[in-house]
Amino acid sequence: MKKFYFFLFLFCVVPATIIFSQNYEISENKSGTWVKISNGATVTRQVETATTGVKEYFGVKNISGAARKVYVRKQVRNSAPGAVNSFCWANTCFQPDVLVSYFGYNMTADLFLPAMFKVDFEQATGNGESRITYSFFDRDHMADSAYFDVLFVTNHTGIANNVAPDVSITVLPNPANSQVKFSATGNITGGNLVLMNLLGIKLYRIPIEQAAPQVTMDVTTLPDGLYLYYLETGNEKGRISKLIIKH
Fold first, then answer.
1. pLDDT per residue over 91-104, tens digit each?
2. Where in the chain is the domain with CATH 2.60.40.10?
3. End-to-end distance of the chain based on CA atoms, in angstroms?
């Protein structure tokens, strides 16, 4: 009986200090200095504009004392209307629907990676808060994990007025697989229709104006996935909307 209680003690007490030990450190860059984020902590990021969003690197360090093959997991706790989020790990950026990195990165003991993990958050429509948990783990050492939350707070006060508020852009069909037609309605004074991917790379930039308020675009060569489009006028950008391509 004494042995039973001894092993029960080990099972209940020891995991708190050993089984759930933290073997990775996460850091944020503050004015050029990497500052450690406590395990399980929440960092808050303000989303200033719908077109800019948040694109930020976080540092990851292996403090386990041994080599680890590190994967990343994303968990969306809650999401504001129209929010689009993705992440990059080990020089590969994943689509928004990917929750776990396809591969692990081999990290030697004490290795610090300042530019291997990046969060990418776009707020297309509406205001609100989005909370996302990012975890780092080795599949052969699942207890050796670390995680932190990013709380994205969006408040687009007056964002719709950047470009004329009575101008709207619609697209058909959506989802699309070959050609799509963008149609602008309202008081268009000229500008460009911009289509970009989730990495912020502009794929198309086509003039649109009152005399020619419709634009047809061939998307047959674009990979399946989520894309963003908006009306650009001078240095100002309108509200971002989403286009899904599925062949």
1. 899 988 899 999 99
2. 23-154
3. 65
Q: What is 23-154's CATH number?
A: 2.60.40.10
State pLDDT tens for residues 114-170: 989 999 998 656 678 889 999 999 999 877 789 999 998 876 554 444 455 557 788
The model scores a pTM over 0.70: no
Give ranges for CATH 2.60.40.3080 in the chain: 159-245
Domain at 159-245, CATH class: mainly beta
What CA–CA distance (Å, rounded) separates 101 from 106? 13
The span from the CA of 199 to the CA of 196, in Å, is 8
Compute the residue count for the chain.
247
Q: Check if the beta carbon of residue 233 is closer than 8 Å to that of residue 200.
A: no
Please tell me whether the peptide bond between 114 and the residue prior to it is cis, using omega within 30 degrees of 0: no
